[in-house]
Amino acid sequence: xxxxxxxxxxxxxxxxxxxxxxxxxxxxxxxxxxxxxxxxxxxxxxxxxxxxxxxxxxxxxxxxxxxxxxxxxxxxxxxxxxxxxxxxxxxxxxxxxxxxxxxxxxxxxxxxxxxxxxxxxxxxxxxxxxxxxxxxxxxxxxxxxxxxxxxxxxxxxxxxxxxxxxxxxxxxxxxxxxxxxxxxxxxxxx
Length: 190
Prior knowledge:
It is a single chain. Helices cover 28% and strands 12% of the residues. The protein is α/β, with parallel strands linked by helices and 190 residues long. It has a domain at 58-189: Rossmann fold. The strands form 3 sheets. A 4-stranded mixed beta sheet has the order 3-4-8-7. A two-stranded parallel ribbon has the order 1-2. The radius of gyration is 16 Å and the shape is globular.
């Protein structure tokens, strides 16, 4: 039987990106999540990221929101988790701004884990549309390309997911469910 473990940098209830809670951002999936007491309880009591081990998991999924640009992209525990999972042949998925977590992880040969890999993430044009291009510490699209990723994108705000080996990336919030399904499909193949 599989289970889901939620982790965050500090543990406990992680902060919510206010834009994610906006009425305009709600979907059938978010309504279902908000109405699920078990899911809400898991979110309210996340494990501290530094206390989880890659050996305990088959995969990891990083959800979006702007937060990963500031915390998870620079978190040594998260970087080590990604490096260990990929080196162990386990998939890593990230959607929207969360591909920011791929900024620093390296493969065994010292290259960026995205170098030469097909990837996507929040586009520069989507960031400009929300008016945060000059506020965020870096643009996901630029970072992925700068690290040697073979970046592609779909239409702004439309679902778009790219899978390349063990990396699964989704472009924006609309890509969350398709990215999760791509990860589940990959886990079934293992």
